[in-house]
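Q: What structure does this chain adopt?
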Amino acid sequence: MRSLDEQTILITGATDGLGRGLATSLAHDGAELLLHGRDDQRGRATLEEIRTKTGNERLRWLRADLASLDEVRALADQVVQMTGRLDALVNNAGIGTTLPGDGKRVESSDGVELRFAVNYLASFLLTRSLLPLLHASAPARIVNVSSAGQAPIDFDDVMLRRHYSGVQAYCQSKLALVMFTFDLAEELEGSGVTANCLHPGTYLPTNMVRQAGVEPVTSLEDGIAATNRLISSPEVDGINGHYFDGTSESAPHPQAEDPEARQRLRELSAELTGIEIPA
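A:
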């Protein structure tokens, strides 16, 4: 494993909360960072703030709206053009149970239920698109920021057209991310690229949690430390296909271990994104 000052790391959702804190921590340690968000003004302000705090000039900004599959594809293309290596991909961006939509069902620009699109499908497409670069940079790590809030996917109503709930939408999208991690890890075994996921903490003090009207429980510092461990710690060298609650290995919802459910999710994701997946 390379030292952090030799690594290039992409973090999605880096202008707020966990992503912003994580970027600041990694910048302190000298990593080259590609920081993603969907608002140019906030993104450039975030980069300037992190530069001032850390003295790290190796920061680059990438804008994309993850509710658009075309913009996700363009983001992946931009990363490939921008850097010759990628040591870690951190799929952190996500939306909560209430906003946008104020509790009502919303679709992405591609007609996909919005939380499924942003919290899961964008990470699926971005990761798949960047796999060649990650393979070329091995050893490399993929870290998917999920949640302990997980709900089984009803494959007869994945888009929740019949019965919509913001909580169900959020929780099934986070379980989908765990299922994807496990699937991907099996495919990557022995390649030098690993995929793991985690629940970084319970109700971190972020805008997403505040918008839901929930009191924070876990400190942001603890969430940053747990996520940073999967990105950079020698402790997890070679660890692949695991779900962590903070820093402890944990068991996700049982559907994550169901081969048939994972296959159905894989096939649906391939159909929605046009990505060809190895058998």
